Amino acid sequence: MCIQLILRYLYRMYTEKNSSSSAEKITIEDDCKSLLLSNEQLTTLMKDMDVAIKNGLRKETYPNSIVKCYVTYVQDMPNGTERGKFLALDLGGTNFRVLLIEMGENNYFHMKSDIFKVPAHIQTGKGSELFDHIAKCLAEFVNKYNLDPNKPLPLGFTFSFPLRQAGLTKGYLCSWTKGFNCSGVVNEDVVRLLKEAIKRRKDVEIDVCGILNDTTGTIMSCAWKNPNTRIGLIVGTGCNACYIEKIENVELFDGDQSKPYVIINTEWGAFGDDGKLDAVRTKYDREIDEDSLNPGQQRFEKMISGMYMGEIVRLVVVDLQIRKKLFNGQLSEQMKTKNAFCTSYISDIESDKANYKETLKVLDLMGIKNPSLVDCANIRYICECVSKRSAYLVSAGLAVLLNKMDEKSVTIGVDGSVYRYHPFFHQLMVEKIKSLTKSDIKFDLMLSEDGSGRGAALVAAVAVRDVLPFPTK
């Protein structure tokens, strides 16, 4: 198949080069202008997000705030004294993981993990079925690794959906995202639901001693190695950020006032749900939103995250094909199929050097035969516009947090498939953050080592160790 694609490409290149006809080469730059964001647009967006975050921290404005800024109740960071065995549960998408992590002296760290699938019917079924399935998988994991089912291990629970916490072990689901829509869970304490499911089994004992978002896990994981970590970011299936905030700025915090800081889970994916993004949203964004399981919600996330980037590209391609600006007006059934264009294809296409080898592979998978070189160039340009916009929006959000914290040196822990695998996402972010932050603020981006897994175990480890002061600068 690969040889055939190369031969097809070489033949096409030869015929185009030697063709006596000089057909006009269509450029689509003008058609993609709506996907390009200027610094002026980003600065306006930043001002609105700064207001939204501050509103989320105040008692008076919190009820109507779009960016909720949930208090995580995580006030203590890893300091190297964590010891023992800990379980971690990482639920944030169609697959979830169970991990066994052991920490010891001299930074000893050993991890075992298994991946379990959440079947499609459970993702949109009853909430009790979801937690029964999770409890079943936990019991299988305990049995597989010969753990004592009657000696409960501390477990950190990463729950990567909008969560309003009322304590370290109490968190209420605000809304489902990422394609989940289980009944009977919204506005319920998910820790209680998990504990009840475990109790119903009567074959395993587990001590859930901390619930967290994947961004909190990321900040904990990176802080274990770099205590300068002050922000946690996820750019994967979803997009969200957390940061370390001074207690005096968090009016809704009712925890330990003797400690100076607490991690805030911004849930910034909802930014723009009040219309503040309308000036930069395209017709493609509106179509994705209207056709989603949660129309009108998570509009910022829908312009950024891996769950939607591929579909944005597909909608642009279909639109241009209908207007006969791609593939001579011919389009395959695959390209017409919702969500058929995977976000990973964007990374593949942008990884091409000069011969469109990967682009040809992707287009072949999408049922596009014999694309012209102009078509290949145009497809790459569409992908570049969508991924660059995503990186710029994330950068604007991070710049808001950096400028608000106003600390002169900050490490940002980052995790997620888009950031991890896109060939240029990191550099796009670095350059754009520099242009949007105060000139005296220095920052670096640190790739998290399994934030949602290791981070969950670290939350459990910190929760059971002797409480030590939060590190200060």
Plain-language structure description:
It comes from Sipha flava (yellow sugarcane aphid). Belongs to the hexokinase family. GO terms for molecular function: ATP binding; D-glucose binding; fructokinase activity; glucokinase activity. Residues 29-224 form the Hexokinase N-terminal domain. There is one protein chain. 41% of the residues lie in helices and 18% in strands. The chain has 16 helices and 13 strands. A hairpin with a 3-residue loop joins β9 (229-235) and β10. The radius of gyration is 24 Å and the shape is globular. It starts with a helix and ends in a 9-residue tail after the last helix. The model is unreliable at 1-24 and 466-473 (pLDDT under 50).
